[in-house]
Amino acid sequence: MRLDSSLIIIGFAAILLASAAVALHAQQTEGIMQLKITLHTDKEAYRSGETMLLSAELSELVENATVSVRGIMDSGGSYRVQQDYMILAGSPKKQINFTFNMPSCYGCAGISPGNYDIYAELSGTRIANATVAIRLEK
User: Fold this and answer.
1) pLDDT digits (tens, 9 = 90+) for 33-53
2) How far apart are CA 45 and CA 114, in angstroms?
3) pTM to 2 decimal places
4) Which end of the chain is more exposed for a tag (fewer CB within 10 A), N or C?
5) What percent of the chain is modeled with pLDDT above 90?
6) Mean pLDDT over residues 101-106, rounded?
């Protein structure tokens, strides 16, 4: 009988620990999701070779993280718009500006005219992401 009550106590303790871990994970996830990125471009449509100005605005000051921008994948699977920006500890940022030259949209370049999404992701101790749509024209 003594062995059975020990197993019950151990089982109850394991359930309590598991519940606490789930509650802690949910609390951390809620904190992570509060940070937001908003993307803005200087215009909606670009011609081959034009410059695109992209602004990534963060909902609060962030440091010790990386903002990665990706978009316009060619037929070979490579992103033609791609850049990482490291936000260093001690130098918090709330806005990061990127400049990209639009790729040629001809058959030999592996890119067709059309609509494309540009993605941004913040990674580090906090996580957030955003998308903005653009149109690429000849």
Assistant:
1) 478 999 999 999 999 999 999
2) 9
3) 0.72
4) N
5) 62
6) 87
Output the CA–CA distances (angstroms, integers) from residue 62 to 25, 40, 69, 96, 120, in the order listed.
Answer: 22, 18, 16, 11, 15
What CATH number matches the domain at 37-137, 1.10.1740.10, 3.30.1070.10, 2.60.40.1930, 2.102.10.10?
2.60.40.1930
Contact 113, 137 (CB under 8 A): yes
**Dist CA 128 CA 38 (whole Å):** 10
d(CA 96, CA 112) in angstroms, rounded, equals: 28
Backbone angles phi, psi at 10, to 5 degrees: -65, -45
Whether the pLDDT of residue 26 is over 90: the answer is: no
Q: Using a pLDDT cut of 70, give the percent of the chain over it.
A: 75
Domain ranges of the chain: 1-33, 37-137
CA distance 41 to 52: 7
Q: What is the mean pLDDT of the chain?
A: 82
| Residue 69 burial class via C-beta count within 10 angstroms: exposed 0-12, middle 13-18, buried 19 and up | buried
